[in-house]
């Protein structure tokens, strides 16, 4: 018996079209309709790890009458570079890709960020469809239209807001994911729990071992709940003029760690350390109760996510955080919690409190 498909709506804002995020199994039959009759060519951008999937999608689209090409890019963060974007632009140019043609990004968040960015920039914007294949990409990266690449100076420094025409989350894809990559995505699920939907935390705490596996009893519910949090936020603030900043919980320190590690850490692992830091910051500033701050440690640790980073790196991390995208001039800004599911902005924290919070995180 086939499982039901859940459809989550994302509203169109700032002149963009609404779209749906589908969660279920055997969703690839939906792809042709999403590509639509106006397209003649389709480019499937996929990572090396998903060469077979990329080729199967290309063959399927060719069978439906499209001129379909597959563009293979490196795995993980190595794909989020200007050089790889230029390689994709070249492939599109050589295929005579026009404004009515469509890009499909299939892979983890690194691939969907890149594919969306290529779609945003090719001919100043063509349609694209996301087929996320990691937990992280399903619950976060593929939804909301933030696309981009890294530079040596920082994470996601070049990008565009360019929402997809649709998102297909086929849960079967998660079965081939390495456990570390699966668990890394739980950091963004847990983030959604702390900022908006504490039932997520209850579900994970009720069965942390199950949460680490696609076969876990709550897998579909966790993914759907986290997508709903993201969809609701981006439906009202696509371009991050206010509310959307809450999705950056834990990311100020996380992005500094990722840059410091030259993008070899998984994003979710860095976000876990970043949320631990944000919780300690809010606790030490007298804004967050001990129980909720402690809950960060227990829930992140229960699923095997890291809490700590190198103590001696603090000066470098602080310098990077000063130019985080949320900073305004010299004003350092963090998303913190005033309580469970009560995210808010902390501006210009006392340097002594920042250092003390890092004292809990650094080792
Ligand atoms: N745009 C956004 O709103 C947003 C939100 C959150 C994160 N992100 C970005 O997402 C990226 C992290 O994404 P991620 O955690 O999915 O990592 P990832 O894309 O680096 O994927 C992790 C690894 O798994 C491989 N892989 C992907 N799917 C697979 C599958 N089904 N089976 C086997 N291997 C598979 C990938 O090729 C890669 O080697 C970061 O660059 C982060 O900045 C973006
Ligand atoms: O969608 C958002 O907005 C987020 O902040 C979600 C984050 O999980 C994601 O990592 C995002 O790419 C970070 O964006 P950035 O603007 O801080 O680079
Ligand atoms: Zn993130």
TrEMBL record:
Record gene name: aroB
Keywords from the named record:
Amino-acid biosynthesis, Aromatic amino acid biosynthesis, Cobalt, Cytoplasm, Lyase, Metal-binding, NAD, Nucleotide-binding, Zinc
Q: What is this protein called?
A: 3-dehydroquinate synthase
Looking up NCBIfam families in the UniProt record yields:
aroB (TIGR01357)
SUPFAM superfamilies with a match to the protein in the record: Dehydroquinate synthase-like (SSF56796)
Species:
Streptomyces camelliae
Q: Where does Zn(2+) bind?
A: 188, 251, 267
UniProt pathway:
Metabolic intermediate biosynthesis; chorismate biosynthesis; chorismate from D-erythrose 4-phosphate and phosphoenolpyruvate: step 2/7
Question: What does the protein in this record do?
Answer: Catalyzes the conversion of 3-deoxy-D-arabino-heptulosonate 7-phosphate (DAHP) to dehydroquinate (DHQ).
Record EC number: 4.2.3.4
What positions does the domain 3-dehydroquinate synthase N-terminal occupy?
Answer: 71-181
In the record, the note on similarity to other proteins reads:
Belongs to the sugar phosphate cyclases superfamily. Dehydroquinate synthase family.
A molecular-function term among this protein's GO annotations: 3-dehydroquinate synthase activity
Q: Which reaction does it catalyse?
A: 7-phospho-2-dehydro-3-deoxy-D-arabino-heptonate = 3-dehydroquinate + phosphate
| Domain (3-dehydroquinate synthase C-terminal): residue spans on this chain | 185-327
What InterPro entries does the record point to?
Dehydroquinate_synthase, DHQ_synth_AroB, DHQ_synth_fam, DHQS/DOIS_N, DHQS_C
Q: Where in the cell is it found?
A: Cytoplasm
């Amino acid at each position: 018996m086939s499982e039901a498909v859940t459809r989550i709506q994302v509203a169109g804002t700032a002149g963009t079209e609404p779209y749906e995020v589908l969660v279920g199994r055997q969703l690839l039959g939906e792809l042709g309709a999403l590509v639509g009759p106006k397209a003649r060519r389709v480019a499937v951008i996929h990572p090396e790890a998903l060469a077979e999937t990329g080729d199967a999608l290309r063959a399927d689209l060719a069978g439906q009458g499209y001129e379909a090409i597959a563009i293979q890019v490196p795995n993980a963060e190595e794909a989020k570079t200007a050089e790889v974007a230029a390689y994709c632009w070249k492939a599109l140019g050589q295929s005579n890709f026009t404004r009515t043609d469509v890009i499909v990004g299939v892979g983890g968040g690194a691939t969907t960020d890149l594919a969306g960015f290529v779609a945003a920039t090719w001919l100043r914007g063509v349609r694209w469809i996301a087929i996320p294949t990691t937990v992280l990409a399903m619950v976060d990266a593929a939804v909301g239209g933030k696309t981009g690449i890294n530079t040596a100076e920082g994470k996601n420094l070049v990008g565009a807001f360019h929402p997809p025409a649709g998102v297909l989350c086929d849960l079967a894809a998660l079965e081939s994911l390495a456990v570390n990559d699966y668990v890394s995505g739980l950091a963004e699920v847990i983030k959604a729990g702390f900022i908006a939907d504490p039932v997520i935390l209850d579900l994970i705490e009720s069965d942390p071992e199950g949460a680490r596996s696609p076969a876990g009893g709550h897998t579909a519910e966790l993914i759907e709940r986290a997508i709903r949090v993201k969809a609701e936020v981006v439906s009202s603030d696509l371009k991050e003029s206010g509310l959307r900043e809450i999705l950056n919980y834990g990311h100020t320190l996380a992005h500094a760690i990722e840059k410091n590690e030259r993008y070899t850490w998984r994003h979710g692992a860095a976000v876990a350390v970043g949320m631990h830091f944000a919780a300690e910051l809010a606790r030490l500033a007298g804004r967050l109760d001990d129980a909720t701050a402690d809950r960060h440690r227990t829930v992140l640790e229960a699923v095997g996510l890291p809490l700590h980073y190198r103590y001696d790196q603090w000066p470098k991390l602080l310098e990077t955080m000063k130019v985080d995208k949320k900073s305004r001039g010299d004003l350092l800004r963090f998303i913190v919690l005033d309580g469970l599911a009560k995210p808010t902005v902390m501006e210009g924290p006392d340097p002594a409190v920042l250092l003390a919070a890092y004292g809990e995180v650094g080792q």
